[in-house]
Amino acid sequence: MKDRRDDRRFHFRLTEESLSSDRLIEAVSTPDTGAVATFAGVVRGLTHVDGSEVKTDFLVYESYAAMARKQSEDIAAKAFEKWPAVARLAVEHRIGRCGIGEVTVLTAASSPHRGDGCFEACRYVIEQLKATVPIWKQENEADSETWVVGNPDKRLDVNAQ
Amino acid sequence: MTVTLALFATLKQKAGWNRKDICLPAGSTVGELLQKLDVDLPMLGLLRIPLYVAVNDEYADSKHRLQDKDEVALFPPVSGGRK
Question: Which of B49, B79, B82 to mutate against chain A (most A CBs within 10 Å)?
């Protein structure tokens, strides 16, 4: 039985180079797809947290690369099951230093028509990625640097079990 | 048995290293590993913080029994950010 992770319909890349949604649209397009949905995550300069403002200088992204790829492949496999008309999926994520306004993550999903699940699959992939894929960002402000800790998922937090 | 421990983000920063081989009694669980590490590395607060554990690239819980040459990664919840 073919390992579901060995699926050429899914493209995954971690890179220190700038991301391009045009390139990703091309990567997920096939002769049969007329609809591509994309999501881009971008570095914010100003974040409102609990009544105060955090001014970001830059972010640094780190990843546990082998696991990030495996988890992303699992997410893609689930998305293909949920939306069987989706043809291809792609995720690209920056690692290393990223400045304000830079795109740090792109997800893309293609399907024959826009009603065939490309929007839903695109959203699903980014939501799942943010919950489970081992990538962390370090917030660098004028005089501090802090690793951002996400909200713990009780199913994954060994100290919540 | 020996497992390789990999630390990320805040844990790596506080420990000052990111990768180390750790000797454990054969058949130890993830929970037992964490208890041992909490004694050796008290500054990490491993038993008190929200903590994700992966063994050979798959998420694991405290009861997971480790094997020789496993890679065990410890890290804080991933930086998903707000919706």
Answer: B79
**Which of A131, A134, A153 is the closest to B75 by Cβ?**
A134
Nearest chain A CA: its distance from B50 CA (Å) = 6
Percentage with pLDDT > 70 across chain A: 96
pLDDT confidence of residue A18? 97
ipTM over 0.95: no
State which residue of chain A sits closest to B14, comparing Cα positions.
A147
Q: Which residues of B22-58 are buried (b: 16+ CB within 10 A; e: fewer)?
A: bebeeebbbbebbebbeeebeebebeebbbbbbbbbe
Say whether residue B34 is in contact with chain A using an 8 A CB cutoff.
yes
pLDDT at B81: 63
Strand partners, A62: A136
3-state secondary structure of A143: coil
**Beta-carbon neighbour count of residue A14 at 10 Å?**
17
pLDDT digits 0-9 by tens, B15-73: 999 999 999 999 999 999 999 999 999 999 999 999 999 999 999 999 999 999 999 99
